[in-house]
């Protein structure tokens, strides 16, 4: 069973809570907050959770905010994080196969619960293809 983190601001809180419960049988989920719907700043909560991926406390992270945009921008500021904002199963699959995304970002105010769950399931089950994609993913780390 994969050990996966989950983190959101208030905009992603409701979807985070749904996913945390729904995924119990298929992954060990570590909740990095937020704990309720009071307003919090996504750059802080998401970047702190991303550090748990970099330290290998968890194998990957599901990150949520209202749109998914702020969480994506915050996550991708950290070297070694490859965060993919996905609204469908195809991009979730490709984010693993081609980009080796270690953070899946969802917009809590954008997509429905069942679609989000299917996106997460696809993301969890899909492996990185490596090969030419490995070269490209490595090049990302030379950009800053
Ligand atoms: C919070 O209101 C909202 O701005 C945040 O969740 C996110 O959508 C930012 O990109």
Automatic annotation (TrEMBL):
A matching Pfam family: LacAB_rpiB
Enzyme Commission number: 5.3.1.6
Residues binding D-ribulose 5-phosphate, per UniProt: 9-10, 66-70, 99, 109, 132, 136
Keyword rRNA processing: no
Catalytic residues as annotated in Swiss-Prot or TrEMBL: 65, 98
UniProt cross-references to InterPro entries, sorted A to Z: RpiB, RpiB_LacA_LacB, RpiB_LacA_LacB_sf, SPI_LacAB/RpiB
Enzyme class per UniProt: isomerase
Stated family: Belongs to the LacAB/RpiB family.
Protein name from the UniProt record: Ribose 5-phosphate isomerase B
Gene: rpiB
């Amino acid at each position: 069973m994969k050990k996966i983190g989950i983190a959101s601001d208030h905009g992603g809180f409701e979807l985070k809570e749904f996913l945390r419960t729904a995924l119990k049988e298929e992954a060990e989920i570590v909740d990095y907050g937020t704990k309720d719907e009071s307003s919090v700043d996504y750059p802080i909560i998401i970047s702190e959770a991303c550090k748990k991926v970099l330290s290998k406390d968890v194998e990957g992270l599901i990150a949520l905010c209202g749109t998914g945009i702020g969480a994506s921008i915050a996550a991708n500021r950290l070297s070694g994080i490859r965060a993919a904002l996905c609204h469908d199963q195809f991009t979730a699959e490709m984010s693993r196969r081609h980009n080796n995304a270690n953070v899946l970002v969802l917009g809590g105010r954008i997509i429905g619960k069942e679609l989000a769950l299917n996106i997460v399931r696809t993301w969890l089950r899909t492996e990185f293809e490596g090969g030419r994609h490995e070269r490209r993913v490595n090049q990302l780390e030379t950009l800053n």
